[in-house]
Each structure stands twice: as structure tokens, then as C-alpha cells.
Amino acid sequence: MAMAALLAGDENTPSLRGKVDLIYIDPPFDSKADYRTKVTLPGVEIEQKPTVIEQFAYSDTWSDGTASYLAMIMPRLVLMRELLADTGSIYVHLDWHVGHYVKILLDEVFGKNNHQNEIIWKRTTSRGGSSYYNHVHDAIYFYTKDKAAHWNQQHTPYTKDYVEQMFRNQDEDGRLWRESPLTAPGKSAGMSGSNWRGIDPGTIGKGRHWAIPGYLKHLLSQEATQNTLLALDELEAQGRIVWAREGKGRPNVKQYVDDLPGVELQSIWTDIGGDSGTDYDTQKPVKLIERFIASSSNKNDLVADFFGGSGTTASVSEKLGRRWVTTDLGKPSCMIMRKRLIDQDAKPFLYQAIGDYQVEAAKATLGRDFRIGDLSQIVLSLYGALPLPADSNPQRNLGQISGIALGAGRGSKTLVLADSPNKLTGMATLKKAIAQRDNLMGGWDRVVVLGWNFEPSIGETITALNDSRLEVLVIPPDLMDRLKKKGGIDKLRGQVRFSSLQYLTIEPVQVKKEDVQDVLTIQLKNYVLLSPEAINLDDANRQALQQVANQEPLALIEYWAVDPDYDGKVFRSVWQDYRGNTANDADVLRVVTKAEVSTPTKVTRKVCVRVVDVFGFEAEVVTTVGAA
């Protein structure tokens, strides 16, 4: 979905079709892997399985083994080719599980002739206990979109043994050198195929021509760089040409040990170990990614990674002066990436949620021609509501529940609204639901709004409405996957829990005027976690989490940030803190709960505070503040 969005663009962002200079991807390639997320909280460690969306997306990837994996990766490769510039390159990082199968798809999408290398990376040392030979390497398939791709030759440093073995000659000033050829394979009809000093290069070797090594170009005049014979004259005048001892009149060039920074990089890499330096299970070493980016892109080029993981590609791109785009399905991954980039003082970047997993899942379950009303009817049924009559329910998203209100002593009528997954449920939807509760079909006792996706400020909105006859619940994000695997509504009925929302509250913002600056003091007050039942935990972990949520709710915050001049559209963080940031305090398990932000004086301003909890859920508060 993210790639399709980048290709499509919108009124504010142009399409990136043909604009990406380098793509590196490290897609999942081991169906047996179970990458759990360990969350350390004060006094307890919680182990979370993949989120419900991740769990079902990855299970779909492997539901039919390798065939379903290839069905997942193929359309993504096609989109990547569309995004690549004509001078662009792609590196696809795999191992022995599926690498050879994906290589066939890469040949089909990018063309066999554009396969430049299979790079072998020795990621670990030998491990004991293997049956047969140890698996100690990954394969990275390197393709270009066309032959005229960006390329910056990389080198590995000479070893002492290599220098001693290969550079055995020495000048009077002590510079070590060796003889290197001045010809290369292939005939040339131009000057590089002409005689020089009476020597035909073809007599040195059949079908050869004169070839000036690239590391000597800086020694030549501008004219000589375009004239091979003149270049040879200039090199001889500088003492860089020696003649073969065997008397055949063959010229060679003096290659000094310092002419090149080392040996040109080859396709087997044993000099980069597998230690990433972090606890993220699948993170690749920074040095590995640096090598790809340095080789196949230039400063200000655009680098993309569509299986972002821990954000190494984005982090290295930022460090090397490249622009970047990175995406990932998992909330923990996105949270780690954001923290990592902030920690390295990255330039301002945009963080967005793109696409709608539920709509795609519904299309897969109900068919491509399904309607949102069909999905609403399923949600209402699983909640236990009966649909309203068609004349009062044109969008098919309203239902009713009738029963005895506990302790009320009378019949209770509840209106239920199932919101669309194409929308963010917010103030407009809730006001409409309240109006329908009060007026539709003679009125109702209460209204329940069931939403898929919510505006970050939904908690503040509910608080501001202060309506005891309004309830807002979360539709399980894995609902369509569970429906598909269970085989229908009837088999799933009674097993679906609609959770309460997470939300944030803060103390009133304090403003102190200092010259032309306002100093804002923002204090976190409370954070209410999404119902623990909606998080993929076992009973023991859920109980431990509930205890922390009851005793110290702010300890659940992983990251928070402040925009003191929020425009209601783009959140621009000017202050942030996150767990593990020892710049603000020494407590690695808690964020600081108070921030002071200095900003130019304004009469009134909107302050936005956003938090991300340890499970990747977000909430925000927006408050209007008058300068004191």
C-alpha cells in the first residue's frame, strides 16, 4: 500500500515514479521465525507476540509455503521497478530458504542482463551442532534498472601480507610499486587500438587494446584524457611506464601501493560481521548497509527500504547525506525507527500511516466488489446488533440492541454505528452519532460507535463531549482475518471483543513570558492504555501489564513529543523524550513527564502533545493556550 501511494502521489506530494535512486530490502525469509517483542517495564518484562495485523499478514505470506511467499513478493518487486529511476539499483537481501526462487522473479522483473552481482555476505562464524555444513552466509541480489546506473567503486584496504606479496619493487624514495598491464581485452577501432612506439596492442595479447587505469586519470592533462596515445606519452614522461624485462617490448605501468585505497570490492564479503549492536532480531550491520548506499547512490539521492525493520537503511542514508523513504507493517518497528532517527539528530522527517489493511483484508475475504455497507453489517452482527430498517439506514451502518438496562427498571434501546475503515473516527462522526441517537426513529437511550481507525485526538474529543450516553469502542483490527480463518460469522460469534480506547490527559499548560519568548511547561497527567485484551499477550503477561497500567500508567509511554504551534495538519516536534534517552534523565525505563519548551511569543497558540506507548499505539492532546 505504501508503494502504491508513493507511485500515485496526491495534491501535496508528487508521484515518486522513476524518482528513487536506490532500493535495499531485507524481506522476511524464514517461515519458522517467531520475532517476539520484549517490553521491559518497571518491575516486569512483557513478551508480546506479533501484533494481530503482523501475525495474520505474515501467516498469509506463508499459508501455502513458498508459493504464497512468492505471491507476496512478486507484485512488490513490480512496484519497486516502477519507483526506480533509470539510473537506479536494487539490492534484495535473502538467504538459502527462498533466495534461489526470488532470483527467478528478479530476472523476470528487472531482466537477466541487469543482474550485476550475487553478493555473498558471511554473517556469522561457524556454529556447532549443525547437521551437514553450517549456514553462515546470506545472499544479496544486486540489479540495476539499466546499464547506466550510478556506481561508485568501493575498496577494501590492502592487508600487510598482500602488500608484501604483490608490491615487491621499491623506488629510491621508498615507494612500493608493482607492474600492471596497460591493455585490456577487446579490440578498439579508435586510438586505443592504434600503434604506440611501434607496438600494436594486439601483439601483446590477442584482441587487446590500450587501456589507461582509472587511478591514473588525475595525472593526465584534459586533452590526454580524451587521447589514449597522448596519455601514454604523458605517463612515460612522468616515469610511470616500465618495459617488460623479457625483451618483448611490452610496456607496463607502475602502480604504487598508494594509487588506490585498496582492492576493488569483490562479491564475497567476509570483512563485515553480523553483530548489529542492538537487540532487534533481524537488524543488519550498519557497515553492510553503508557499503550498498555508498556504492550505488550519491549525496541527495533518494534511498528507499520497504521492509524497514529497525531503520538501519534510513539511519545510514541520513548519515551519508541521502534522502530516504522507509516503511514497515509493524508498530514496534516504526517506533524503533522513529526513536533511532531522533537519537541521531536526523533532519525533520514526516511520519505517516498509509493505506488501510482492513479494506484490503475485506476485499480478500468478500471479493473485490464488496461494499463498505457489507463490512458494516458484519461488524454490527458480531457486536450483537440487528440492522435498522433500510429507509432509516441507507448506508447500512446502523444497528440496534434492545434489552433490560441493568438497574434501570425499564427497556433500554441502544443505537450502534459501525464506522467505515476508510475514515478516521473523530469529532464529526461522534456528533453525528449523538444527533442520530437523539432524533432517529424517535430517539434512543444511548449510542455506541464502533471504529476501525481513530483521530489521534479522539480521547480529548470524547472528554470534551462529556456525554455519558455515548460509548466509543475499537473494532479488532484482525477481524477480517479471523473471519476468513474461522469460516464465517456464525463460527466467530461470541468470540470478538470490542475494546475501549487509549487516551492521554495533561495538566493545564503553564506559560511564562521571558522577553520575546514564551516558556511553556507541559506536564503529563494520565495515560489510559487500549484494553489489554486487544494486545497479543498470554494471560500471565496480560495480568502483569494490567498491574503496571493500574499503578503507574505513565510508565507505559515509550515516546512523547510537543508541537507548541500546531496548525491542525502537520505535527512538527520541537521537543521529545523517549525511554532510554539519558540526556533528559538517567531512568531508562521511564520518560520524563514534564517538558519546558521555549518558543516565540504569541497571544494564543495551539499546543499539541503526542505520545506513543510501548506497544506502538498513539494518542494526542491539543489545547489552546493564551500567553500570560
Summarize the structure.
The chain is built from 17 helices and 31 strands.
The CATH topology of the largest domain is what?
Rossmann fold
| Tally of structural domains | 4
Number of strands: 31
Biggest β-sheet strands, sense, barrel: 7 strands, mixed
* Mass-distribution shape: elongated
Q: What's the arrangement of secondary structure elements?
A:
Elements lengths: L1 H7 L11 E6 L11 E5 L2 E5 L3 H11 L3 H18 E11 L4 H12 L4 E8 L14 E8 L10 E2 L3 H7 L2 E2 L5 E6 L1 E3 L15 H4 L3 E3 L17 H10 L3 E3 L7 E6 L6 E2 L3 E2 L16 H11 L5 E4 L6 H8 L3 E4 L4 H13 L13 H10 L5 H12 L2 E2 L10 E7 L6 E8 L8 H13 L6 E6 L6 H8 L4 E5 L4 H8 L2 H4 L6 E2 L2 E4 L3 E5 L2 E12 L10 H13 L5 E7 L11 E4 L15 E7 L3 E10 L4 E9 L2
Parallel strand pairs: 1-4, 1-16, 5-15, 16-17, 20-21, 21-22
Antiparallel strand pairs: 2-3, 4-6, 5-6, 7-14, 8-9, 9-13, 10-11, 12-13, 18-19, 19-20, 22-23, 24-26, 25-26, 26-29, 27-28, 27-30, 30-31
Helix pairs in contact: 1-3, 3-4, 8-9, 11-15
Family: Belongs to the N(4)/N(6)-methyltransferase family.
Protein name: site-specific DNA-methyltransferase (adenine-specific)
EC number: 2.1.1.72
Describe this structure in words.
This protein is α+β, with helices and mostly antiparallel strands and 628 residues long. It folds into 4 domains: 2-154 and 265-343, Rossmann fold; 157-263, no CATH class; 369-499, Trna Endonuclease, Chain: A, domain 1; 503-626, Immunoglobulin-like. 27% of the residues lie in helices and 27% in strands. It is elongated, with a radius of gyration of 32 Å. It starts with a helix and ends with a strand. Residues 404-411 have low confidence and may be disordered.
